[in-house]
Amino acid sequence: MRLQCSEPCGVDPSLLREDRVCVACGAPVELEAERPAASAEDLRELWRRRRASLAPADCSGVWRFRELLPPITPALDEVVTLGEGNTPVLRGGATARYAGLADLRIKHLGWNPTGSFKDTGMTVAVTRAAVRGASIVACASTGNTAASMAAYAARAGLTARVYLPRSVAAAKVAQAEAYGAELVRVGGSFDDALVGMLGKADPSTYVLNSLNPFRVAGQKTFLVELMEQLGWQVPDVIVLPGGNLGNLSACGAALDDLMALGLIDRLPRMAVVQAEGANPFVRMWRSGAERLSPLADPRTIASAIRIGAPVSWRRAARTLRATAGTALDVGDGAIAEARRVIGHDGIGCELGSAAALAGARALRQAGWIDEHERVVCLLTGHLLKEPGTGDSDAAESAVDARVGVETGC
Fold first, then answer.
1. Contact 275, 300 (CB under 8 A)
2. Hey, what CATH topology would domain 89-116+215-407 get?
3. Which string of b and e fits 45-70 if b means at least 16 CB within 10 Å?
């Protein structure tokens, strides 16, 4: 496995560390692509057969696609798994009508073991940490990464240290605590927590934020699973929420693999959706700027995407350019309304996830999506992550309360 800077800057690869950013330019570090020599048909058949297996690695919707993962360990019984992946693709009824689309599907990644898509990356990254002999793993988090890391660290017998900003949903904090994590409260935003965590992480601590390429490697499998569930027929558009943008970066890596291996014959258009009050990537995309300008005080009811300095913006921008995609923002009112509509289909998600449906509706109204195009919305977190924000009034109260806490009012 060879490391390289994701923004090739000429740095000597020997100076790079897999769980930190590039020492020369600050960009995330990535793994040089290694792909199997098997044919597309052989891979499809192999992955199909594994679905009938009872082996723990085969029961994982991540490790079942291990030919696309970095070679971490030769012993499958060393894999740290909780049966992640295997999340459903559901047809939208109320959601399709709301978005103005004839064919809308929802892949609900919030049906993972700890309730978010983070598990698909954490199983790989924690396995890597354990194989390397780490004893402490750490992350900064708005809640979902914390819960996921704490669960998988507990499974592996590692100490989990979580750096949390002030405004995190109580249910997410409770999850991390239930799995035995050490909680470190940091004043300010997620971005402040990330800077604080990186400053305190000594060389013996293994960092598990989305800057870790093993996280991205695991997360790309949710898109591979989606294509398999769609019979390898590529949808026209995939819409997903954007916070730290590791999910969009993982989609880009997956699409690179799928195209290179002949598993798909075209690319979907990717659309990433941020909240209006936490939209640094959208601002960069709209302006045509070459670099992202961080947002010092991101504000939105959608805590999972309340991030002002997303680490993975470079790879996310590459993915949008490669897929003729786009980035847009939506207001908190639209996010809360979309979450209610998703509930009318019997599907529950956290507010950050609902930004995907709000974005799909906005893109349809703008004509960027045609009524008869096949569209998939990725929901990244479960409703029970934020049980106290079930409607727009509650959501508005939640944001008012959080603003009051943050400003000391």
1. yes
2. Rossmann fold (3.40.50)
3. eebeebeeeeeebbbbbbbbbbbbbb
Q: What is the pLDDT confidence band of residue 389, given thresholds at 50, 70 and 90? A: low
Radius of gyration of the chain (CA): 20
φ/ψ of residue 241, rounded to 5: -75, 155
* Token pair of 256 as six digits: 């690179």
Picking from 87, 86, 89, 85, the residue whose alpha carbon sits closest to that of residue 375 is 89
Say what angle helices 246-260 and 313-322 make with each other, to 10 degrees: 40
| The two three-digit tokens of residue 333, written as one number | 């009112």
Looking from the CA of 189 toward its CB, the CA atoms found within 13 Å total 20
pLDDT above 60 for 134 = yes
Burial class of residue 80, CB neighbours in 10 A (0-12, 13-18, 19+) = buried
Beta bridge partners of 159: 136
**Residue holding tokens 């009012």?**
409
Nearest to 98 by CA among 290, 347, 401: 347
Mean pLDDT across the chain: 91
Contact of 97 with 116, CB cutoff 8 Å: no
Task: Give the 3-state secondary structure of residue 241.
Answer: strand
> How far is C-alpha 290 from the chain's CA centre?
23
What are the tokens at 216?
A: 């991205």
What six digits make up the tokens of 263?
A: 């598993």
- Cβ atoms of 141 and 190 closer than 8 Å: yes
Residue 329 clears pLDDT 90, i.e. is over it: yes
Q: Are strands 3-5 and 29-31 parallel, antiparallel or unpaired?
A: antiparallel
Which residue type does 345 have? D
Q: Take residue 191 and report the two structure tokens written for it.
A: 């971005």
Instruction: Write down the pTM of the prediction.
Output: 0.91
Look at residue 152 and tell me whether its pLDDT is greater than 90. Answer: yes
188, exposed or middle or buried, with CB in 10 Å at 0-12, 13-18, 19+? Answer: middle
Using CA atoms, how far apart are residues 359 and 99, in angstroms rounded to an integer? 9
The answer to whether 364 and 99 are in contact (CB under 8 A) is: yes
Which two tokens mark 254? Answer: 């997956």
Q: Is the backbone of residue 143 left (phi > 0), alpha (psi -120 to 50) or beta?
A: left
Domain parsing of the chain, residue ranges: 1-32, 89-116+215-407
Output the pLDDT for position 47.
Answer: 98
